[in-house]
Design a protein that fits this description.
Blueprint lengths: L8 H9 L4 H10 L2 E2 H7 L5 H13 L3 E6 L5 E6 L1 H24 L1
Antiparallel strand pairs: 1-3, 2-3
Length: 106
């Protein structure tokens, strides 16, 4: 995020969640922490490269926490930070709007 470079709050939020996969990653992590492979399976169509890049961006924005465990084989889990949880809460009404209106128009 680039403080001070936004026109409005929606602009700032869209910078964080923009793109096809970020809100779906947030949705998947809302239930519980996931390993990378679990996220790939839950998001059919995402490539490893794109998922890794999106997770890295969400981590840099303070939305996702990456925990690497010192085990053999290595294990990494991704979870939502408190900021990520609050972002999911903010997106919830948008999801409700989508569910309601997609049924009306399709």
């Amino acid at each position: 995020m680039r403080p001070g470079s936004y026109v409005c709050g929606i602009d700032a939020a869209m910078d964080v969640i923009g793109g096809k996969w970020k809100v779906l990653i947030l949705w998947a992590l809302n239930e519980r922490p996931h390993r990378f492979g679990e996220l790939r399976r839950e998001l059919p169509g995402v490539t490893e490269k794109v998922l890794a890049a999106q997770l890295r961006e969400l981590e840099l924005d303070g939305i996702v926490h990456r925990e690497a465990y010192d085990e053999v084989p290595p294990r990494v889990e991704y979870s939502l930070t408190s900021l990520g949880i609050s972002l999911n809460e903010a997106l919830s009404p948008l999801g409700a709007w989508g569910r309601k209106n997609i049924l009306i128009h399709h």
